[in-house]
Each structure stands twice: as structure tokens, then as C-alpha cells.
Amino acid sequence: MSAEPKTHSVSSRQRCPQAKGLESVAPLVRTVEENPDPIPTTIKGTVPTWINGSFLRNGPGKFEFGKDRYTHWFDGMAMMHRFHICEGSVTYSSQFLRSDSYVLNSEKDRIVVSEFGTLAMPDPCKNIFARFFSHFQTPKATDNANVNFVKYKGDYYVSTETNYMRRVNPQSLETKEKVDWSQYIAVNSATAHPHYDREGATYNMGNSYGKSGFFYNIIRVPPAETDAAAVDSADLTGAKVICSIRASEPRKPSYYHSFVMSENYIVFIEQPIKLDLLTFMLYRIQGKSFHKIMTWEPQHDTVFHLVNRHTGKESEVKYRAAPMITLHQINAFEENGFLVMDMCCGDDGEVIGDFTLENLRRGSGEEMDKVYMTHEELHDDELLQYGGLEFPHINYDRCNGRPYRYFYACGFGHVFSDSLLKMDVHTKELKVWRYPGLYPSEPVFVASPKATEEDDGVVLSVIITPREEKSTFLLILDAKTFAELGRAEVPVNIPYGTHGVFNVMG
Ligand SMILES: [Fe+2]
User: Fold this and answer.
1) I need a labelling partner for 76 at 20 to 30 A (CA). Which of 1, 158, 188, 376 fits?
2) Could you tell me the residue range of the domain that residue 328 belongs to?
3) In a domain, 382, yes or no
4) Ligand 1 mean position, distance from CA 147 (Å)
5) Of all helices (H) and strands (E), which one includes residue 285?
6) Which domain of life is it from (predicted)?
7) Measuring CA to CA, which residue among 415, 416, 424 is closest to residue 461?
8) Within-domain flag for 119
């Protein structure tokens, strides 16, 4: 937060041009068949022969059982997709996650395990929040892990934001055992966006609550032991809570979707999107919907908690900024005595839509030690024509926690992303890939083996369209120029997905 302040008198919502005449994207949220056996693709252009590995993606892929339908796309059953790239050719395979939810629903041919659409929230963002608050519910949370692929001790898992993950085989996409975080450490959840250090440890965050209050916990899972026998089972042993951050208001915790990690610090953002736990319990008893207890509370600052990730010690200084909403952060690094962090965020918490605004003006119990921060926008107004950006990715292996120059993201000119963007954070120059009717997934960077510069490599994205059946393709862009190198056309339909990773192990 070293930059010059730059203030705006209007909100981001007012500054963004209103989209008009948007096309229907209904075909992008239809149930599809799985393809467990890899199928060939048709290559147009060139797939660089140095790319070897698998592009793995997650997302909802089945939206009904029998006559029962989910009311929200985010409730759809997790489908895993794999684009295996080897010596210039690409194959595609997919499988539904055999979660307990999927298996039970399939056996009964109806929806017997509730997902979050039962909360009747029509919009994806709201549903993400609803998912978070399901942590407070009994009966148990779902294991329909349709958000991301994550790694612990070298094993792949699929994850959502509940206490459950599912281990998977990243080659066959076979579903392995269910893992319950609370069996290892005292947390009730973990995000779908962990961080990895260069020694192989994984860091994540999860909640706990009890008599002593509500805590946001930082979790560390150590690297796999090198001399350990290769055992085909989930292993989170050695997982530790390295820091428990007390919620500013014990009965009103904040929602969070991710966090950032620099070389020495983890930064947790406590944003003023809050859940009133007491009202929540009352509404559950009364059977009321959740939307009235989720509140955007712009009378509160955003609080940045800084934790030394080596010692687990939380800084006594609380860093504060104007109220903001953020899902995905981009990167954080230390430079010249400053901690710089970049994120996708907005100043308009109305994105949570129908949630009742509670503009109760009251003291927020501020600590004596505090630092108020301003921000710099990493873009200029040119970005607004692409609807803002989300799903940021960097050259993670090289740059996470360190000074960096480029990130890649999706532009949102529609409810689903309709462009790919490359941002130079030094010059704020924007490179764009955008064609009408084509909807790209989150871009993932893959470095070339002889890379010297940060953007020596390619960007992978899966492109889908509602305009034509079975016209999906894997797009390969030169990360430096953002020019298309090639595409691998897959003769299947793929629904709009969530997050993905590149697995160099094939
Ligand atoms: Fe996410």
C-alpha cells in the first residue's frame, strides 16, 4: 500500500457502463455427459511441443436428478475436466466427482442432499456467500467440491469452502476418499484458494467458533516427507493452526474467499460483509431464508491482519482501509519496507444484492494502534469497457509473494466472463482477447522450460459458446504477446466452470 492515493467520488458500479442486450448463456449451464476415456481433439494452429502436462478444471456439470432440478448453477454436481497436452497434441476427458451427494442423488434419482440453491438465491455471488454460511449449519455440509483443484503433500484434492475435500487422481480423475478438516485440526472449513511455499508446504485459512468467540485460523500443512513410503491415501498429518485471528466482532464474522502470502507474511482481509450469528441461529429456527442476515456494512472499515508466516505472530498494528468487497487477491510482496498487495475488489458491496443493508452507525471498537491505508488502481478507465476483471492468475511459481509485473484475468462484460486480459502492473497496459459469443474460463499461465522473463510461456483457457453445439476449444495464447498460438477443438459441450490448475506431472 505504498502508492499515491487516488480517490473517486463515484462508486465502481456507477463508473462501469451498463451492459445492454446481453445474449442468453443458458446453454452454458446445461447438464453434460462425462467422457472418462480421453478423446482426441482437432488442433488448429500450433500447440508448442514443450507443453507437457494436464490442464485440470473444476465446475458444476449436472443440474438435475430425475425430475428434481437445482435452482442455481453453483449447486450443480462437480465435474472434473482434464486437457492432457503432450508433444503438440491434446486429449480431453471428464468425470463427475463421486461425492456422497452425487452418489446418494444418483441412487435415488432425485435430489436428496440439499445444496445451496435451496436458499433461493439467484445469483452466483450470493450463492458463494450462502455456501460460506452453510458452515454454521447442521446437518452436515456438502462434499460436492466444485470450486477448485488444490494440493496438499503432493496429492490433488478438489475443494469447495466447506470442511470436506475429496482426494482425486489427477490422471484418471477417479474420486478417492473424503477428507474432513475437523478430524485433523480445530477448524470447520477451509477456502478453495490455498497458497504454496517453495518448500512444498500448503497454507490455507478456515473458521472456528465456540465459547471464546469466532476465529479466522491460518493453517499450515507441511510438505510430504521425502523418505515416506508412497501410500495411496489422504494425509494431512502435521497440519497445524499457526495463528488464530479473533473476529473484530465476535458475533459478526466476515466472509472471505481467499488471502495472500508474501515471502514473510500472510495478509487476511476482514471485509465489512458480515453475518450476524445470533440472527442466523434465530432464522434457522424460524426457517427464514439467509439473505436477511448477510449484510454489507460500509460503516465499518476493511481491516487487514498481518501475520508472520514463520512465527505465526500477528502484528499488533491493524491496517485499515475504506469498506471494500474482495473475493480473489492477486499477489503480495515486500519491497523497500512496504508490503504491497494487489487484489480484485470493489467499493460497492451491493453486489451482494438483496441482502438487507444495515446502515447502523455505531462505533466499531477501533484499536489504538491503527494505520489507515489508501490504494492505487492497477488499471485505467480502459478496463471499464470489459466490465472489470476477476479470476486473476500470475506466474505463480516464480512470482507468488515476490515483486511481479503481469497478471492474467477474465473480463466480465456479461454474467459469465467474455474476455481474457493481461495486465502490466508497471505500465497499466492491457492486452485483450475477446470475440463475441465466446466465453473463456479463468486463464492459467504455464512457463516455458527455458523461460528467462516472467511472461515467457503460454496462457491456457477453455472457450465455450452458447451459439453452437459442441464447439468447445482449449485456447493457447502466447503469454507475452497475447496472440493465439493454437487451439484444440473438443467435440463436446462443457458448462461454464470455476477454477483450474496446470499439473506438470501429466
Ligand atoms: Fe475462487
Assistant:
1) 188
2) 27-503
3) yes
4) 7
5) helix 277-286
6) Eukaryota
7) 416
8) yes
